[in-house]
Amino acid sequence: MNIGAKRSSLILLLSFILTFSALAGDLYKLGSGDYLSITVWERPDLKTEVVVGPDGRIAVPLAGQIDVNNLTLEEVEQEITKRLETYIKEPLVTVQIVKYRTFRVQVLGQVAKPGFYNLDPGSKILDALAIAGGPLPSADLYDVQVGNESIDLASVLKNPQLDRSLLSGVTIYVPAARPILVLGEVAKPGSYIWQEEQTLLNIMALAGGPLESADISEVLVDDKKIDLKLIMDSPENDMKLLPGTTIYIPAKRPVLVLGAVKNPGSIIPRQKQTLIEIIAQAGGLLPEADDSSLRLERDGVIHEGTLMDLAKEEILYGDIITVTEMKQVIVAGKVMRPGAYSVKKGLTVSDVLALAGGLQNDAADLVTIVVNGERREVSVNSRETLSGGESLFVGASNQRVLVLGSVTRPGSFNWQEGFSVLDAVAMAGGQTDRADLDNAVIIRDGIRKPISWEENELLYGGDIIEIPEWQREVLIMGEINHPGSYKIERGQKLLDIIGIAGGLSENAGYQISLRLAEEFEDIDIAKALKDPSHQSNVTLKGGEVIFVPEAKQEVLVFGQVQKPGRYGYKQGDDLTTIIALAGGLTNKADVSRIEIKRGEERKFVEFGNHSLYGDEVIWVREARPITILGEVNRPGAYSVGEVNRLVELIAMAGGPTKFANLADIRVYRSGDAEQVTTVAAGRGRLVFEGGAEDNPEVYPGDVVYVSRSNKLDLAEVASYLSIISSLSNLIRVWF
Length: 735
Hints:
The protein has a five-stranded mixed sheet, with helices on one face. It is built from 15 helices and 49 strands. The protein folds into eight domains: about 5-100, wza like domain (wza like fold); about 105-175, Roll (Outer membrane lipoprotein wza fold like), CATH 3.10.560.10; about 180-250, Outer membrane lipoprotein wza domain like (Outer membrane lipoprotein wza fold like, Roll), CATH 3.10.560.10; about 255-325, Outer membrane lipoprotein wza domain like (Outer membrane lipoprotein wza fold like); about 325-465, Outer membrane lipoprotein wza fold like; about 470-550, Roll (Outer membrane lipoprotein wza fold like), CATH 3.10.560; about 555-620, Outer membrane lipoprotein wza fold like (Roll); about 625-715, Outer membrane lipoprotein wza domain like (Outer membrane lipoprotein wza fold like), CATH 3.10.560. Strand 13 and strand 14 (about 225) form a beta hairpin. By secondary structure, the chain is α+β, with helices and mostly antiparallel strands.
């Protein structure tokens, strides 16, 4: 073969190589660590093999130093050709990759083999996790940290197309799955380890199932309300739980029995218990109870009827039963026994006059009925039905003035010209100490008019003076030493009536319910007991129904204690007492930030003698770990005490590697890159020679990074040179 033919063959070969190089160049960018072979056609003296240096440069004979970082092979060939044209006519340059570079990533957390790993270019997240042995069962795949980004690894595993390439030096952290918290009416409330494919029914089974008192129709899963009964009846509707889910199973609302019963209050009903059975459980009806007028309130709907009508009605949780008292009718005037009489439905005018002993000899034939300021006259023999609340006045055959209410001798008095309001009250013996003069009225022709005592208005025959008694009552029941109905004076407050009723019982809760007409108010009596001037010590108006519930007297403790659960509370127990009942703190407990929740209030305290009320939820969190990265033998996250020294932590992580630069150690407070402290803890990589300032305190949540020394390791360099020499000889033989 002549020289021309040989040259043509080589050109074809080089064209193939150039084509291959161009294709490779389209797909791959050079970087530090790539091992290259550079050939110049017909110039064997210029053939060389080089490794791209840390600065991205290579040294080429005649062409000099060239920055090839992030260039394709074709771009490097063009640059070398351009530089060699000064010395060689039409140089033909070929650049090939002998060995691709690798890059280093760190995999931490819940994987089988955490540590540093060298990966090939283009490697992705799943590649790195596979080399690290894969995630552990305890891993939280929904919040994996890749550098500064959070990745839903569960979605990536289901759809690998979502995977992404990694950059050199990135850290992958797979956190532990947060536990599932189950609270409320279950057999074993507490926290449970989350597992893949865990469902609501699974976790309810682990928690011992709902109690008899549980309201499973309104279970809260985080902020979502769930009807657990529907899921239990149709397991195919079961829901999958995520790490950190909180499940709360509320208690069924008790039945509230109010009014004219012996022991009003709340009752937990048995299954299929009837209204008459509930009333019997409340001690039965009082003598003044009106069995013809009962009210059953359920889910905001009110059902009214007689005791016989509602007796066999099945009672449900949350029902309110109200037994009304018989209403009163005031009878005055020309009757034998004036006074107030209790009436049931159906009682007539003549019936009430009979209860009052009948008419006197000089009584008129008409009776005046006053209701809500309206006045009318009917026959004393009328069969008109009264509903209660009326005032009946039987006048004399001649004109008289009637004085009713809070006077010494209420009754009717002969009227004469010039008779005034004060004259009438004086004839009635004057007002009593309990008279409510501000609300006294004159009733004339059915019209009520306030009395002006200064004007001392003149009266006319047939006028009625009403001076009401400041006689108002409140009903207090529940956990009180002497429940019942009590009269109150002007200006009396909530604490006053509690004292009159004998004070709170030992089992009393502090969330008192106060009802006035259709208005409800929940009051934290603890604030009033602590400070009587507090707004919770409300002024009573009269007519209120006060209910003092039974205190739970249990404190729920969970988190980093030896025995999480519910613990009985005794008066005077504080935080340290309850934690002791729970077996004490674990060595992982964060004693500086214990959460105490009571109702809607939440506070964070240090472990100590903090007072409790007996209905709190206490959460002892796990202390945040300290993360140690960089040139140590066992990088990772370490659970430690509250205060630690830098050198001891490095020792805990297996000590520094041979590449460690102890003169450049960085401490990031709470992992914040903006709060960094650089510490020179030693000289070289092994010698610690500093004082206390060079061995600073490190706190939970901090990140410690031990940097790499810039010094060259000669043994490692010799190893690389040996590999390069062997590869060069192999390529030379092939060509």
